[in-house]
Amino acid sequence: MSAEAVYATASSRSEPKEHMLVPEHVRKAASKGVIYEKRPVKDTAGKPVAGLFNAWITLDNPTQFNSYTTDMVKGVILAFREASAARDVVAVVFTGSGDKAFCTGGNTKEYAEYYAGNPQEYRGYMRLFNDMVSAILACDKPVICRVNGIRIGGGQEIGMACDFSIAQDLARFGQAGPKHGSAPIGGATDFLPVVIGAEPCLGPAWPNRARSWAMEKSQAMPISWPPPIRMPLTRQITGLSQARIPDTMSLKSRI
After folding, report:
1. Cβ distance 145 to 94 under 8 Å?
2. Which of 172, 187, 193, 248 could make an SS bond with 157 (beta carbons 3.0 to 4.6 A apart)?
3. Bridge partner residues of 35 (DSSP)
4. Residue 173: which domain range?
């Protein structure tokens, strides 16, 4: 093999491969209601670290408490895949727009206007939902759920798929579906027994009514549900104004 051929082969091997599922402009066009942005990582002195970023994935439907539509589910899948493959991303923050809710699950307006009249389509929707949960679980970077308000139903399930949560002090967690005949099988039946134990999941408050949790220090405790059982749904509680995310460089030392 000639020297030129050897050099060409070595150069081709040194060029990084593209591992994104779709080009960035395609993801942006397909991600209606989902914001993907990269924010610089800061060191312990508060200075940006060159070339390193946190990926922020935001559910942007605040007028409907960040409930996800079919298009938003697809956007979340693509956003997590991009964050996972990005070489300059070291962690992912998953949150919602505004200060009222992280996410309240599936968009009931879309359910009523489309899926209620087309039940045969719901299987495809649930396939997408399961793929969204899988995209969060399989992300190659630590995933932090920034809980800025209520996290209910499917929002609770995709939140529990994250590595851990950081919540404001008025955050509320629960499952509303069982009260209305909707089984919480999008993740709650998988994650909750692991997080809080099987018996609390089968208690009198489940599944007859939605659960609501008050935040206490770094854990959550059920309201008016004896005996008091602390549930480590969150690692850190922040002030009401917003759930602040620690700088990734200091955070990674504690993971």
Report:
1. yes
2. 187
3. 58
4. 18-248
For 61, phi then psi, to 5°, come to: -145, 60
Distance (Å, whole) CA 229 – CA 206: 14
Return the minimum-mean-pLDDT range out of 50-54, 87-91, 198-202, 243-247: 243-247
Report yes or no on whether pTM surpasses 0.90: no
The answer to whether the beta carbons of residues 246 and 235 sit under 8 Å apart is no
Q: How many domains is the chain partitioned into structurally?
A: 1
B/e letters for 40-49, b = 16+ CB within 10 Å, e = fewer, are ebbeeeeeee
- Residue 207: inside a domain, yes or no? yes
Model confidence at 65: pLDDT above 90 = yes
Read off the pLDDT band of 193 (50, 70, 90): confident
Cα–Cα separations (whole angstroms), residue 169 to 100, 106, 224, 230: 12, 24, 18, 15
Name which of 83, 80, 52, 79 is nearest 251 in CA terms: 52
